[in-house]
Design a protein that fits this description.
Helix 2 packs across helix 3. The protein is globular. Helix content is 46%, strand content 17%. It is of the alpha+beta class and 270 residues long. The protein has 2 domains: 65 residues, Arc Repressor Mutant, subunit A, CATH 1.10.10; 183 residues, 2-Layer Sandwich (Beta-Lactamase). It contains 11 helices and 7 strands. The strands form 2 sheets. It has a 5-stranded antiparallel beta sheet, with helices on both faces. Strand 1 and strand 2 form a beta hairpin. The longest helix has 16 residues.
Length: 270
């Protein structure tokens, strides 16, 4: 490992980020192609990840897959911040009130990541996607809610840096800077974000940001959303969730685990 450089570390992380979004695994050649890396270097880096048990190679298909070791790291981090203990009951209550899926994302390094959810739907038709991936910013209610808290030019730059495309693009997705600016202004004015078939066909959502109430500047630390099938969630029903959603994000902000985590790490008394 003495020859393992910062560049190698970056490439290993890029491989992991690619594989966690590919539950079926990828062949060596595809990984190298997606990341614009030499096949030989990709093979060597995968060998390191396999040895550390972050990646496994299927003995039959020979594709590489991320292992549960990656998920375990995330779960250990969440446990350390008391995220599930503090936030899950709030999400469960909101899911019961709305009868739809509630999702929480956490903000870190200019990225929102889905980390937890609560299912409130009791019918056979449910929206229940996988958590643990980055939130597309311009086509999700969570993304719009957070972008609307930023200076407008900064929000536009973040979207342009990642492009108007992506894995989750629905038929009504925003595709121009002008439309993005209009949507962010509307979101700021009403205090919540809405999407209707923008990330996925047939899915609508409402979202508000979570702010850490223990900090005087009340920084945004995440976002909470209620989402479900569009045929059940017309505009009036989505907007009708706003009072319950606002109560949930305010309670979550008061109990945000960052406070307990900070106190634990610094020895401060909350």
């Amino acid at each position: 490992m003495s020859n393992f450089s910062a560049s190698s570390a970056e490439r290993c992380l890029a491989i992991l980020e690619l594989l966690v979004n590919e539950p079926g695994g990828l062949a060596l050649s595809i990984i190298a192609q997606r990341l614009s890396l030499p096949v030989s270097a990709t093979h060597r880096l995968l060998g390191v990840l396999v040895a550390r048990r972050y990646v496994r190679q299927d003995p039959v298909s020979e594709v590489y897959e991320a292992t549960m070791t990656v998920a375990a790291l995330g779960m250990r981090l969440l446990a350390g911040t008391n995220l599930s203990e503090i936030c899950q009951p709030i999400m469960d209550e909101l899911a019961a009130q709305t009868g739809e899926l509630v999702r929480l994302s956490v903000l870190e390094d200019s990225r929102l990541t889905w980390v937890a959810k609560a299912q409130g739907a009791r019918t056979s038709i449910r929206y229940d996607p996988i958590s643990g991936r980055d939130v597309p910013l311009h086509v999700t209610a969570m993304g719009k809610a957070w972008l609307a808290t930023l200076p407008e030019d900064e929000a536009v730059r973040l979207v342009l840096d990642r492009g108007f495309g992506g894995d989750l693009i629905g038929p009504r997705a925003i595709r121009t800077v002008e439309a993005l600016r209009d949507e962010l202004r509307l979101t700021r004015d009403r205090g919540f974000a809405l999407v209707v078939e923008e990330a996925e066909e047939g899915i609508s959502a409402i979202s508000m940001v979570v702010r850490d109430a223990s900090r005087r500047d009340r920084p945004v630390v995440g976002a909470l959303a209620v989402a479900g099938p569009t045929f059940r969630l017309d505009h009036d029903r989505l907007v009708g969730f706003a009072p319950q959603l606002r109560a949930a994000v305010e309670e979550m902000g008061r109990l945000w685990p960052a406070r307990a985590y900070h106190a634990q790490m610094t020895g401060d008394v909350a």
